[in-house]
Specification:
126 residues; mainly alpha; 4 helices
């Protein structure tokens, strides 16, 4: 399996990368996509995918653990879509209750964090 501490490090990597990517995607697309629900869904999905790719690259190349292949089972892709939908929609609902923070960057940040936390729980249990 993984050496001690690698699981915690990979979770931190996933959450930080997803938060940054979610904020960036929402910041870039805020003027193009006017529907905040779709904006949150797009940001959560992109953040989840990028965070998983970055995590796999770092785990293999820096820590030297894990397989060298990046084969993703179909069930994991399905769960990633579900996790990003659930995380993004819950982030939208949460930020919708706080109008001063209702903008693309906060929505994307929370969508990335919530989606990545759900995806991280999947990665740990799968």
């Amino acid at each position: 399996m993984f050496p001690e501490g690698v699981t915690s490090a990979s979770l931190i990597i996933v959450i930080l990368v997803a938060a940054a990517v979610g904020a960036g995607v929402d910041g870039l697309l805020e003027s193009v996509v006017t529907n905040m629900v779709w904006l949150a869904i797009i940001a959560g999905f992109v953040a989840t995918i990028v965070a998983v790719i970055v995590r796999n690259e770092l785990i293999h190349h820096i820590f030297g653990t894990g397989p060298d292949t990046f084969k993703v089972p179909g069930v994991v892709v399905t769960f990633a879509v579900i996790a990003s939908l659930a995380g993004s929609l819950s982030a939208h609902e949460l930020i919708d209750d706080y109008p001063p923070y209702y903008n693309g960057i906060w929505t994307g940040t929370l969508a990335g964090i919530f989606s990545s936390v759900l995806m991280a729980m999947l990665m740990i249990t799968f």
